[in-house]
Amino acid sequence: MKELGNSLAQLIFVIMVMITLAVSTAALSQWASSDAGGDDSRIERGDARAPVLSASATP
Fold first, then answer.
1. d(C-alpha 1, C-alpha 21), whole Å
2. What confidence category does residue 58 fall into, taking pLDDT thresholds of 50, 70 and 90?
3. Is residue 40 left, alpha or beta, with left meaning phi > 0 and alpha meaning psi from -120 to 50?
4. Which among 13, 34, 46, 59 is least buried, having the fewest CB atoms inside 10 angstroms?
5. What whole-number distance in Å separates Cα of residue 30 and Cα of residue 21?
C-alpha cells in the first residue's frame, strides 16, 4: 500500500510539473508576441473596430 501511495505521489508531482511548464510556456509566448507588435497592435491601442466586409457587386 505504501508503494501505491508513493507512485501516486510521484504521478501527482509529474502532473504538477507539466502544468507549471505549460503555463509558463504560454506566458512566455504571450510576452514574446507582445514585443513583436505586428498586425495585432491595434488591439493593444484599444481599437475595437472589426473589419467590414461588403457584399455589394459593383462592376
1. 30
2. low
3. alpha
4. 59
5. 14
Residue 44 grid coordinates = 493593444
Q: Output 28 or 53, whichever has higher pLDDT.
A: 28
**Nearest alpha carbon to residue 23 among 31, 35, 33:** 31
Q: How far apart are CA 48 and CA 39, in angstroms?
A: 13
As separate numbers, helices (DSSP H) first and strands (DSSP E) second, the chain gives 2, 0
pLDDT tens-digit map of 21-46: 999 999 999 998 887 655 555 555 56
Residue type at 19 in one-letter notation: I
At residue 8, does pLDDT exceed 80? yes
Report the alpha-carbon distance of residue 15 to residue 8 in Å, rounded: 11
